[in-house]
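Box 3.1 A note on notation
Throughout this textbook, protein chains are presented in two layers. The first layer is the amino acid sequence; the second is a token string describing backbone geometry. Keep the layers aligned when reading.
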Amino acid sequence: MIRIQSIYHMLAYAFQTLQGQGYRDITAEEFDNTADLLAEILSRGVSLQLKHGLGREYVDREDMLSSPRGKIELSESLKTRSILRRQLVCSYDEFSTDTRMNRILKATIMLLIRSDIDKARKKALRRLLPYFVDVEDVNLSGEDWHMRFDRNNQTYRMLMNVCWLVVKGLLQTRESGSLRMMDFLDEQRMSHLYEKFILEYYRREHPELSAGAPYISWALDDGFDDMLPAMHTDITLTRGRTVLIIDAKYYSHTTQQQFDKRSVHSGNLYQIFTYVKNKEAELASTHEQHSVSGMLLYAKTDEDVQPDGVYQMSGNQISVRTLDLNQPFETIRSQLDSIAEAHFPKEVAYV
């Protein structure tokens, strides 16, 4: 299990907007489920957006108008016989709030209102709907969720991610078409959030380290890399010539079982070993000696056996650890800080 408050902190680091004044007291509230938490975040986020105004874009329109504007569509006007009503079919651009992102916001708010959340939060969400009166309804089941963000719509980034989590986490029930939130966001969604949370935590809390998620080049003899998969790390921490590659793993089972023996997922171990050795080869081209190590960081489960070990493999350290998310956030912070301190010990100043 993961505490609901822990999910909030993960979201807060993953989407830095939640560090703002409008959200800080959320940690003092109690939430019965993930849906209530996401409803509260969305309610506050949309309220803050309304203070700045809903985003607008130029939207293509085609209507029958008595006063022509834009481009007159003569063939359509003849086909619809609008001329008999002293109207013309015109196509034009309108600077409107009826944008794709506003449609998603409206549809997600309506989904939450129909779901099993606190009545007070439903009421708060209903108060937002009149501001979307000019925004069309949309069916989110076919939404692809790929969006471009720029400085004009940057404030929507977190809102769209919360909408995505809500839509993917809501399940249709058989009773009267109502909706409920899964006890947990599914493994795929949580895995994505888990990775982003750890990366953004180190970026924010450990500025002495360079934290990123870079690609690693294959160490090839002839440079031929057709059909080879990309090596994209979850989290890479660097300070000076010391590198730690973290592969964040969120599974319902942290180990694999064969007969009566439990072991680390073999594919995970092969993957982190491959990352480490290819990163070491990549850095060797600089003709400077580097220390490259790897870590599989699993989200702790309720299982009796949890992976925990440090292995020396072909000159590199590969460790396996778990992060217990069912703890107060200060304990989670301590676990993450201890990883940084163990791999990047503070330099002792000699007098």
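Confidence is low (pLDDT under 50) at residues 172-178. The two ends are 49 Å apart (CA to CA).
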